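ok new one. same drill as before - structure tokens go in, u give me an amino acid for every spot. 141 of them this time. try not to just spam alanines like last time pls lmao
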């Protein structure tokens, strides 16, 4: 099971090499190295979930580094971290906006209550339907 995100990353590395974009290439190579470490440590091929976990960890690290550099008055390093953060966020799925979340909550709350107590399966199936609806909304946007 090959990771589509990893394939996209490798294509983007090639594109950055061809366009001689050193900063982006450096950020992408670092991301690739972190993913490779996961492959080596876990002795298996990575999935999209694994890649997203690595990206999430790197995003968090960049945000924390930016805060520290801002406190230290290192605007040059803040700009560098912000650039890397933007590169990594491009690989993350789009986050739901507050309005979209509110609409999902409203939709869930507007459903009629069952006459019998809801089972866990009923609740989980309703949640799965809401997620599918949200995914469709994002694809159509």
């Amino acid at each position: 099971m090959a990771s589509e995100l990893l394939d996209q990353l490798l294509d983007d590395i090639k594109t950055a090499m061809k366009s001689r974009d050193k900063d982006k290439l450096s950020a992408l190579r670092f991301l690739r190295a972190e993913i490779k470490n996961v492959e080596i440590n876990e002795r298996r091929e990575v999935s999209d979930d694994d890649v997203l976990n690595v990206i999430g960890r790197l995003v968090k690290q960049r945000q924390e580094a930016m805060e520290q550099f801002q406190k230290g008055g290192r605007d040059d390093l803040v700009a560098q971290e912000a650039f890397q953060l933007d590169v990594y966020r491009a690989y993350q799925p789009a986050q739901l906006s507050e309005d979209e979340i509110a609409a999902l909550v409203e939709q869930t709350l507007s459903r009629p209550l069952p006459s019998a107590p809801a089972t866990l399966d009923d609740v989980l199936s309703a949640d799965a339907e809401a997620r599918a609806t949200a995914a469709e909304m994002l694809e159509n946007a």
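Residues 48-71 form the longest helix (24 residues). and btw Helices lie at 4-19, 22-42, 48-71, 75-89, 98-109, 120-140.
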